[in-house]
Amino acid sequence: MYELPTYTKIWRIVQLIPFGKVASYGQISDLAGLPGRARLVGKSLSCVPEGMSLPWYKVLRSNGQIAFPVGSAQSQKQIGLLEQEDIFVFNNRINLKIFLWHPDLHELLWKLEY
DNA sequence: ACCTTGACATTGG
DNA sequence: GCCAATGCCAAGG
After folding, report:
1. Does A1 map to a domain?
2. Within a domain: residue A94?
3. Which of A22, A28, A68, A84 is exposed most, by the fewest CB atoms within 10 A?
4. CA of A94 to C1' of B5 (A)
5. What phi, psi does A75 have (nearest 5°)?
6. Distance (Å) from CA A41 to C1' C11?
7. Residue A48 counted as domain residue
8. So what's the pLDDT on residue A114?
9. Within 7 Å: CB of A38 and strand B?
């Protein structure tokens, strides 16, 4: 049983964030079996191949903030995509009490078997 | 092989 | 709240 490349593991977790929910960089790294490597999640998302479908915009900082600079084109694009899932952004921040993903770990492992 | 770069997280003041 | 310091480590140059 060989290990998937780090970025591939991360992308596969991000793919499982359900509609209308968000996750944090640290949460994704934990779920990918890479605790303490939140920065690699950000790096991996900046390396997503062109044309690969991935809900990158649902990954936020641990406090619910959007990671891109306020007012940047990337931030505005992210806000638009979030609102398409009825995830609302105020002052560059999402309310995690409402929108944070709480995955069922058994179900998650099962889905990763594919 | 060394150095730098990150869409981060946590802690302590 | 804010800021600075520290830890993290795969990838790319």
Report:
1. no
2. yes
3. A84
4. 27
5. -60, -45
6. 13
7. yes
8. 79
9. yes
Indicate if CB(A40) is under 7 A from strand C. Answer: yes
The answer to whether A100 and A113 are in contact (CB under 8 A) is: no
**In chain A, which residues from 40 to 69 place their CB closer than 7 Å to nucleic acid strand B?**
40-43, 45-46, 48, 56-57, 59, 61-63, 67-68
For the CA atoms of chain A, what is the radius of gyration? Answer: 14
Smallest CA-to-CA distance from A21 within A77, A114, A86, A76 is with: A86
Closest nt by CA–C1' to A69: B7
pLDDT for res A1: 53
Residue-number span of the structural domain to which A44 is assigned: 6-112
Per-residue pLDDT of chain A (114 residues; tens, 9 = 90+): 567 899 999 999 999 999 999 999 999 999 999 999 999 999 999 999 989 999 999 999 999 999 999 999 999 999 999 999 999 999 999 999 999 999 999 999 999 987
Based on the structure, what is the number of domains in chain A? 1
CA distance A10 to A3: 12
Q: What is the CATH number of the domain that holds A58?
A: 1.10.10.10
